[in-house]
## 1
Amino acid sequence: MKADKRLIVAIDVHSMDKVQQLVETLGDSVNYYKVGMELFYSVGSQVITYLRAQGKDVFLDLKLHDIPNTVGQGLATLTGLGVSMLNVHASGGPAMMKAGAEAVRKKADEMGIERPKLIAVTVLTSINSAEWSALGYDLDLSKQVVHLAKLAQQAGLDGVVASPQEAEAIRAICGDEFVIVTPGIRPSGAAINDQSRIATPAGALKNGAHQLVIGRPITAAENPRQAVQAILEEMRDKA
């Protein structure tokens, strides 16, 4: 996969004006965008319509987590928006993930559209070892991430969201075709912000990541397009 298809830029704003400004600034240097809760809850599906009209792929990052029927119905509705990727929380369990995968497949078939990939969030990259212990889990954090990845694969999902630190172990267990989308990417010299389990773009790809989600190191840069080009150059060396 080419580097520009591996880069997903997170649009962490809350207005269409700011979305349009960013997309116009980045132009054809970026083909894939992530729309998260802040933006989707602020402007709704119009941002998806806009990005698709610009010829962009969209990862709709809403992290659904509820009972199987509710998640299935929700994903069926979201599939109708024509995005390229959706996600759920793996901690919702095998039944929930399986219901979600089946709902996405069925809805895409009904509409005659390409099925969006469905991936599962393992453990948020903002959680460190101390927070993990406070949650009371017995299994080591890294082992839990791999365990959840295996559950997601068995439930019929296309991949997972996981930190760069766990990507190599997931790739070894789940194979090369299993998608690993990695947030917590920080180019050399970039601020860590609220992330804990991080890596550079080259480091994440070396560890087995499939696609990288990068937000503030690009969107908060003095020259966002230049920041993208620098990241893509680093990714091309490892792609």
## 2
Amino acid sequence: MATEADFLFPVWDRPATVRAAISLRTGGFSTAPFASFNLGDHVGDRPERVARNRAQLQEVLALPNAPCWLHQVHGTRIVKVPEAPAHGWSPPEADGAVSTCPGVVLGILSADCLPVLACSRDGQCIGAFHAGWRGLLAGVLEQGIAAMGIAAKEILVYLGPSIGPRRYEVGAELRAAFLAQDPRTEPFFAAVTAESDAQPGKTPNGDRFWADLPGLARYRLMALGVASVEASGLCTAEDATRFFSYRRDGQTGRMASLIWKEVGA
């Protein structure tokens, strides 16, 4: 059974009326390879176990409503949630959501991609965005910040656990795509130079790089004018005890990153 010990509670410069939590992989009902607190209903886990895990999520965190999950597709669509769904929620195809309604719980599922939580300085608007490399490159954060409808300087952002800059090995073509958009992103790619550093079965030959996903996200957010960006500094691929990691394990579960406004705020 999950307890508060099976969650991270992000600390960043946010108003007290905005709440946030990130689930760990521990404390749930799923079995290998989804052990145990898998919240993803699209990864091959038994639906009844996912349902039990999601019920636990809502109970332990005392959520005002069930999370508004998304059908994430590594795109840039952002949906606005005007009110807490009264009769259930059918996940739309999107990679971000924003809301100004108290009691609406926004949720992002991840297992290496970067979950991004955001709120306005006055606590009136919240956002949650799913940022893998495809979404970052396509502009999901730019779309998300714009959808919040307020000045970027008034937005406070938290970057959750994701694959870290010494575990995310990518090819030269991905690096080139980012540099083609903005040559100033070059420092976020470090060449893989040692045989011991390369992924199994890969040999360093000048075309493999470590990508700093949180660093790229921070850079793009600050380029928009977001002045406050805090990061967890936690790598999902390095910590198999606490985090699911698709890059590490292949078939695996998903953690949830949630943000909501307290009812009455």
## 3
Amino acid sequence: MVERAAIEGRLMDGDARFALESRYGHFTAMQVRDRRVRGLGLHFERLDEASRELFGGGVDRSAVLASIRTVLGDDLRDASVRVYVFDADPPRVVASAAPPHEPLKGPLSVKSVVYQRYLPHIKQAAGFQQAHINRTARREGFDEALLTTEDGLISEGSITNLGGFAGGRLVWPDAPMLRGVTMRLLERMDVPQERRPLKVADLTGFDQVFLCNSWGVMPVGAVDGVPLPQDAGLVARLLGHYEGIAWDPLD
């Protein structure tokens, strides 16, 4: 639940938050620890690219930082922060803060769902469909939903990216998707990598499958009730790379 929100350096009341979060726009999500963020430059890049595509102009980094700092105030050092850019003239930058979120405890169980997002490379505000898919999967006892095409081609999770190790390579789905900040940080890992078309049935042949988002990196133990191989060494290597990524200061 959102606890605070700020627009371009000014705190907002609850009614204003609701009105803005229902508008046309895009956002990025990050975990703040000790007022630091992993991949801050990638968050700026995401916001800037999406703003240029949707609104015809980039985003003001100083406005982004001002809203983050304001929403954290002097007391919050750890938080889940979202930065939205909403349609206006000029576009408005809004940051919200909620309690910090740790990775889900794995191995996770995921369910495949036939659904493809419009403009999947943009992290869209007011994502009713994905929220509904995620909530439905959780009610059915799964940790996350895996989005696929009609013929079973995997793109991404409802709020995550999927990757896996197979034959000594780190493999990502070759499909339209949002390349999350955590995914992009893992792409810097010193291991052979490739993108290729993946179907759900292919995952049983992987040495280790995982999900990642701003919460962290989470191993997957089963898909549609079918167990997947687990390799503790690969998970440790993956986590070692992720946890070794420097945190960027917000102040």
## 4
Amino acid sequence: MTEKLVFTGKTHNTSGRNGGTVSSDGTLDLKLPQPHPAAENLFGAAWSACYMGAIELAAQQRKVKLPAGPKVDTEIDLNVNDGSYFLRARMNVTLDGLDRDIAHEIIHAAHEICPYSKAVRGNIDVETNLV
């Protein structure tokens, strides 16, 4: 199998009271005066977007027509224990109108497909919940 680059996201970040981030393509331009909670929110937003695409791919692979687009509410917790910081995450997925067993199968398959989910596997406790 030959590797193929699909996309490279490029951002420029600055810190301080006037800190922020801007993407090279201009689709992202945010003021980020504090690294926390911006980092957790941005990570959750990026992961959710990727995960929704993985849900659509998992449904397509199973020849399941998704009802109106999936919704993902992601919660990223920043925790500290004995001075060591770590993350926990919950992916709360809504797939209205889909049989619950099929929906469960799709969201778990999506967690195996999503590059963000793969990147954190074994490093972050993650719950995938069908709501």
